[in-house]
Amino acid sequence: MTAIEAEQLTRSFRRRGKAVEAVRGIDLQVAEGEVFGFLGPNGAGKTTTVRMLATLLQPDSGRVRVAGCELPGQTRQARRLIGYVGQAGGADDGMPVLDNLILQARLNGLGRAEARREAERALTAVGLLDVADRLPRTLSGGQRRRVALALGLVHRPRVLFLDEPTLGLDPAARAALWEEIRALRVSGTTVFLTTHYLEEADALCDRVGIIDQGRIVASGTPADLKRGISGDSVTVSVGERGGERVKEALERLPCVREVRETPGAVRVYVDNGAEAVPVLVRALDEQGVRAASIAVESAGLDDVFLKHTGSSLRMSRAAGEERPETGASSYAA
Ligand SMILES: Nc1ncnc2c1ncn2[C@@H]1O[C@H](COP(=O)(O)OP(=O)(O)OP(=O)(O)O)[C@@H](O)[C@H]1O
């Protein structure tokens, strides 16, 4: 059965008197029990989409059906069946972790005893029962993120929305959260997560939708998406300038299938990276171009991203592109 269905969703905002088209006609379907990743750069429209799917924002046009409920007509029923964990997390710092969860469960209509039971179950599920009596502000960033996850899970939602669940976490905390998400999948919960971490989409998701400038530009399993880009990618770092010359020097070579410029580097697609590198180095030498570094990899999701959007997600992160403050609010259905 389909857990999430959207047809031709659109949403604009007004900013300084101008219309910003955040979402421009999105269609998607997520099957029950699937982990679906929504991958895109800053400002692509991920949060706007996830908030519309999770009943938190009204679309300008289009249709949403989630957990069997048609929106906006069946919003109340839908909220009982879905959970939402926003970027800001949702815990109240003035009360201990367990009380936060009990309150959340009560808000979802559970009786006192059941709310306590479910709160303890959710904390156990995210490995935090030992901090039940602590105030959220005394916890580490990773622990606070897991409290937010528990808040989204306390009423056993069938569909869980996670907006950038691991943003800013260190690798160990991220790995711990990935395990929680994998466990949710095993329990049959449908998970819709937004991310701009390629590795996260690759490691966790059954299917991925790539969003850019408010539109889905590609979707499929990570393996299917990568299959469309077989071979190796060679990244030639050239600094701020010089990309154009490198591109010119390399795109004529018979072993080169395609060349794309990204900020500070040129990505070259070849069948066999190890064989191509000496040829590329010679060609650069002949043109008097010096590369800062050359790296060979199997083509991955970033290459899929580059192909469909014309920009590299990894390179834009490396170039220090910071995310704007979104002020996202948090809510657990
Ligand atoms: N409330 C708002 N008012 C005005 N503009 C908005 C509002 N919310 C989002 N936008 C704009 O809509 C576009 C999409 O934003 P959105 O937050 O959905 O992107 P995103 O992919 O989630 O980005 P990020 O990864 O930075 O969270 C951006 O240009 C953003 O500035």
UniProtKB/TrEMBL annotation:
The keyword Electron transport does not apply. Residues 4-238 form the ABC transporter domain. PROSITE patterns: ABC_TRANSPORTER_1 (PS00211), ABC_TRANSPORTER_2 (PS50893). Keywords: Antibiotic resistance, ATP-binding, Nucleotide-binding, Transport. Residues 313-333 are annotated as: Disordered. The keyword Nucleotide-binding applies. Gene3D superfamilies: P-loop containing nucleotide triphosphate hydrolases. Signal peptide: none annotated. InterPro entries: AAA+_ATPase, ABC_transporter-like_ATP-bd, ABC_transporter-like_CS, ABC_transporter_ATP-binding, DrrA1/2-like_C, P-loop_NTPase. GO terms for molecular function: ATP binding. It is found in: Cell membrane. Pfam families: ABC_tran, DrrA1-3_C. It is a peripheral membrane protein. SUPFAM superfamilies: P-loop containing nucleoside triphosphate hydrolases. Belongs to the ABC transporter superfamily. PANTHER family: ABC TRANSPORTER ATP-BINDING PROTEIN, ABC TRANSPORTER ATP-BINDING PROTEIN NATA. This is ATP-binding cassette domain-containing protein. It comes from Streptomyces huasconensis.
